Structure prediction request, 341 residues.
Amino acid sequence: MYDRRKFIKLTAVTASLATLSKYATAKTITSAPGDRLPIVISTWDFGIAANKEAWKTLEKGGRALDAVEAGVKIPEADMKNHTVGRAGYPDRDGRVTLDACIMDEFGNCGSVAAMENIAHPIAVARLVMEKTPHVMLVGDGATQFAVEQGIKKEKLLTPESEKAWKKWLVTAKYSPKMNIENEQHRPGSKYNHDTIGMLAIDAKGNISGACTTSGMAFKLHGRVGDSPIIGAGLFVDNEIGGATSTGVGEEVIRNVGSFLVVELMRQGYSPEDACKEAVHRIIKKKPETAKEIQVGFLAINKKGEYGAYAIQEGFSFAVCDKNKQDLLIPGKSFYKDDKNK
Ligand code: SD4
Prediction:
């Protein structure tokens, strides 16, 4: 006998399977030709040194995940770098709190936020990913976990950072506007600054990413930006590509920026156009705020094509592949390059 209920159920299942397969087949990006791989890209001038370290793993046929972890450890360890890792500027209470996350080709991810006394937050983020059932550990819990894993606690506040903090305390003016680059911070200058976000594709075509920062200098104690938030500061989808961000994290979180960039690439946008659209969304929602701040996105797709876009002029990114290990590219920006602004 004709069973109407069964028929409806079957039709619904067939329809949803059809939808699923339509998306599953249409929304992947064919892998890069072997000659374009491996490749690693990262944010800002300090990305050059970080990429070179990542390259040592990639050129040997190593995994992108190992490459990005090794790469971002370079600025984390750099005592002259006051925006990433151990020499990062403290919060307004004089405490250095670090944020980082990492994501691999299987969609595994790990993150630490507002973590104190541990010099390499990216290593702890990876341990969270690999040794716990969780994605994110914060504050004291993150430090405690790191120590349990055999990592040494250290005092992070350097004399230089302490001096800068004490100078800041004189006026104690809290303003995220500082993220607009000035002459000192232009590409090629000796000033290394801001968050490092790194994306790599290994010789097998697998993508991983890492992002690490000390966050905004003199932030409220406990403030966490976009950098350790999967989907905001970093996102990787091994079928499509990866994206990362730098700048005022609050605006990136509000727009789930890196996830948005990857989803736009899934819809067919080039990496640069995807970054541009994500920047436009931020500007459209808060045009007045956007005039005063910097946000930049960097992305790579499965083909090994890459691009970036920022609100303000001055954002740069570094590219390293077998042809050139120290390429620094000025990213396009809304205020300099967008004719429709
Ligand atoms: C944050 N996006 O904490 C990060 C750090 C940064 O200049 O880029 N600061 O919001």
Summary: The chain is about 35% helix and 20% strand.
